[in-house]
Amino acid sequence: MVELVEKAMAGAPVVDDRVARWRAGFDDMFSLVAGRFAQADSRRRARMYLLGLLSGAERKNSWTLAEQAGDLTPNGMQRLLGYYRWDADAVRDDLRAYVLDNLGDPSGVVVADETGFLKKGG
Question: Which residues form the Transposase IS701-like DDE domain (predicted)?
Fold first, then answer.
């Protein structure tokens, strides 16, 4: 899956049908939250931010996400997170609804466990 995300981010030619389906699914999902970002720049950055979070990058911070988006500095990603006005709770609710409608299974369980992420450094 990580490989598909990276191909989609890079705008790679669609050779694999899975990449096309993943990209279409991501586009559908993002269309649900795009209206939460009033400015075109904030929408574009939010899209790249989400793609970066879904990527296989080992570290995910403003620098690495900005680099993946093709930016030279993290300023744009930091502007998205700290300056632009958008409702994080509404975006979360939109994404949750999308997951339930498209990926959910009535008998499924989602478990998030931060112990799977080893801390690097001090």
Answer: 36-121
**What is the tens place of the pLDDT at every residue in 53-86?**
888 888 888 899 999 888 899 998 999 989 999 9
Radius of gyration of the chain from its Cα atoms, rounded to whole angstroms: 15
Q: Residue 86's closest CA among 32, 25, 26, 43?
A: 43
pTM confidence score? 0.71
10 Å CB burial of residue 80 (0-12, 13-18, 19+) is buried
* Dihedrals phi, psi of 108, to nearest 5 degrees: -80, 160
DSSP string of the chain?
-HHHHHHHHHT----SHHHHHHHHHHHHHHHHHGGG--SHHHHHHHHHHHHHHHS--SS-SHHHHHHHTT-SSSHHHHHHHHTS---HHHHHHHHHHHHHHHT--TT------GGGS-----
Q: Is the pLDDT of residue 4 over 60?
A: no
